[in-house]
Amino acid sequence: MSKEEVRLFIGPQHPGVTGNMSVEVLLRGDTITWARTHIGYLHRGFEKLMERKIFIKSFPLVCRICVPEPDTNEENFARGLEELAGIEIPERAKWIRTLVLELSRLQMFIMWYGGIAGSMGLSTPVQWGIGDRDYILDLFEELTGGRIYHIYIMPGGVRKDLPEGFEERVLKVMDMVERRLPEYDEIIMENAVVQKRLKGLAKIPKEWVDEMGLTGPVARACGFPYDVRKDHPYEAYPHLDFDVITEDGCDAWSMLLVRRREIDLSIDLIRQIIEKMPRGEFLAPLPNVLYWKIPPGETYVKSESTRGEYGFYVVTDGSDKPRRVHVNGPSFVHGITLLERLLVGQNIADVAPIMVSLQTCPPEMER
Amino acid sequence: MEVLNRLREKFEITGDKVQRDDLALVETTGKDLIPVLVYLKTYEGFKTLVMISCVDWMEKGKFQLSYNLWNPEKKKNIIVKIFLDRENPVFQTIYKIWPQAEVYEREIHEMFGVNFEGNPTQDEELILEDWEEIPPMRRDFNTLRYSMEKFGEREPKSGIIIRKQISEQYDEWRRK
Amino acid sequence: MGKDKKYFLDEKPEKLTYGGVFRRINDWARARSLWVVAYGTGCGSIELRPTFTSRFDAERLGMRMVATPRQADVLIISGYLTVKTLKRVIRVYEQMQSPKYVVALGACPINGGMYYDSYNAINRLDLYLPVDVWITGCMPRPEAILAGFKRLQELIDSGRADGWKKYIDNLDRYRENQKKIIKNWKMPNYNW
Fold it and tell me: Is-contact B106 A365, C-beta < 8 A?
């Protein structure tokens, strides 16, 4: 640190950071010359706690790993246990899970769409985004009983079947969201400030994508069609008809475009799911879950969350508790390795838009 | 997967298993791990490091390190694992092959106490602050006892007494 | 920032004394403009967003988020607190100007909630900070948060929300408890 440089601490108590984390930067004038991410403010030791709980008791814990999008965790963990225990789940359960996953992706994207505008000082879309997300949370509440934490997906399928008339209500909300989107576009996409600030911001070199293991919208904004739903189809995704969205700008604007198109894709997928969903059982018969022992083995299951590839590495040793569960969220790489390199050379005012563009989610970095 | 045959020819592979169509598990020795990783990255297209994980096998006296790689073209995952001695867990860093390995190794160093030689930042605190006990993810660290000792009882004594009274009353009511 | 700069209180600050009709007017006014410091310490902050935006709209009750603790009246402990965050929270709390109020959200600050056995999450918040209102649930719904704030307003209005006075009076005891789990009182150089 030379005399011309100033050390600045962004977070943890700062409205601009995405959650409870902090970034330490060195500034020369307005330009960042060095950055370091500090995490650990939300570390609860999930992986340790799960080692001392039987499998079914881990489910209330596992959904709390990523707060805004809990269903990915449940689905991943359930799928990992099913694979190790050799349980086949009914066809309808797969479709219901896919519906829940897509709904949770959609609500996260809508909140994010408002959030990226909020990070640049546009507060109207924030209000809209969080307000419209609540319609989807109401659907979740009807389906699972909880607004944020659902604990709905469990090994063998899902906890309950869809309530009567739920499909129509989902479609109604989808119509509502679709009707609202042009207003969002008008206020965000066509805004000169947003365009000027995001175009060319945080340009990611293309070779970083494979080298660092970037996934999700960040990789897709660089032109790499990496989507776990297509590459390693899980649940009901093989039966759905969709294309992977890519953009070629490698910057924050392309990430915005990718996520904007993902909203359309999610709405389309939800309609497809409701149209094609089969009837039947929703829960496979399980052994007594209180004495459920899973044979030794290890596996890595992954799914596509809004931020990228979300993976669970599960190791069992034949007892009734997992030997090791390692949760690998996409933010771990995006928020530490990528962010530290990406911030260098940027303007101090652009830290918040870059962090929101990468969608760093601290609770999944440190678990 | 065919890559397993080629690996078996070239390196000392002590065990392998095809878990799924797109996931293979390979076990090798510490000496061969870095050649295997470099071979997989350069010749087999496993360009991406997904994660590094550590498992504590306390009964066997071993730490297991798992390196999870992904092939973006063929869409396959492979997990290469090695076993380290639990008493003196030292291994080489691989952050020169993949930059994100640095943070994964830093986390494993903090949580399990595995030393990665050559990692420039592993001694910096990542998640914990002023930690004085043995690394918390080791199996012999008792988190419940630590929590009770450090953070005290979950509720005040009066609360425990009241709860006890309530449950006694409830038992009585059930007996009736 | 010198090395021996004091980051935390080390002696009792002067207590604000006022009484009679001024106290009544002050309390009435304070209850109607609660500014909340925007610090999401845990997962509860996800439900604070709906509370403070268009659907539940806490601003109509005079509450809004502010960025700096020096302008804020209320500190929301949203969910579990890890040891690392507790140190920052204490610092944020001591920076706030009296009168100040603490609202604890969720089951975790009450008795540890589902992290009762975690090595990094505290069990009982009231050992370390004075809490005025507890809101239970995991997560508390926005309606519950609003009800909790309503309760806080009643307490302030009737002059019973005096957690900050307790903190000043019992600073030694609180500090003793805090020192049990925070060994190093120096802020690391990456945040202070």
Answer: no
Residue B31 C-alpha, separation from nearest chain A C-alpha, in angstroms:
23
Fold entry, domain C20-181? Rossmann fold (3.40.50)
**Is B136 inside any structural domain?**
no
Domain ranges, residue B176 = 142-176
Give C180's contacts in chain B (Cβ within 8 Å).
150
C65 contact residues in A (CB cutoff 8 A): 15
Nearest to B151 among C87, C122, C188 (CB): C122
Confidence (pLDDT) at C124? 85
Would you say the ipTM is above 0.90? no
Q: Do B49 and A232 touch (CB under 8 A)?
A: no
Hey, is the C-beta of C190 within 8 angstroms of any chain B C-beta?
no
pLDDT tens digits, one per residue of A207-233: 888 888 888 898 999 888 888 888 888
Give the residue from C62, C12, C64 showing the smallest Cα distance to C36: C64
Q: Output the six-digit token pair for A337.
A: 């390795």
Burial of C178 (0-12, 13-18, 19+ CB in 10 A): middle
Helices C83-95 and C171-181: crossing angle in degrees, nearest 10, is: 150
CB contacts, 8 Å: B128 with chain C? 84, 120
Q: Is C186 on the interface with B (CB under 8 A)?
A: no
User: Measured between alpha carbons, how far is residue C154 from residues B95, C18, C60, C132 in Å?
Assistant: 57, 19, 16, 11
Using a CB–CB cutoff of 8 Å, tell me whether B102 touches chain A: yes
Partners of residue A44 in chain C, C-beta under 8 Å: 80, 82, 115, 118, 120-121
Whether residues B19 and B84 share a domain: the answer is: yes
CATH number assigned to the domain comprising residue B27:
3.30.460.80
Residue B40, in any domain of the structure: yes
Which element (helix H / strand E) includes B66? strand B62-71
Per-residue pLDDT of chain B in tens (176 residues, 90 and over written 9): 788 888 888 888 888 888 888 889 999 888 888 888 899 888 888 888 988 999 988 888 889 999 999 998 888 899 998 998 888 888 888 888 888 888 899 889 988 888 888 888 888 888 888 888 888 888 888 888 888 888 877 776 766 677 777 778 878 887 77
Interchain pair B127, A366: CB under 8 A: yes
User: For chains A and C, what is the number of CB pairs under 8 angstroms?
Assistant: 99
Q: How far is CA C30 from each of CA B45, B175, C33, rounded to the nearest angstrom?
A: 64, 53, 5
Q: Which CATH class is domain A46-366?
A: mainly alpha
Interface partners of chain C (CB pairs < 8 Å, 3 or more) are A, B
DSSP A238: G
pLDDT at C2 over 50: no
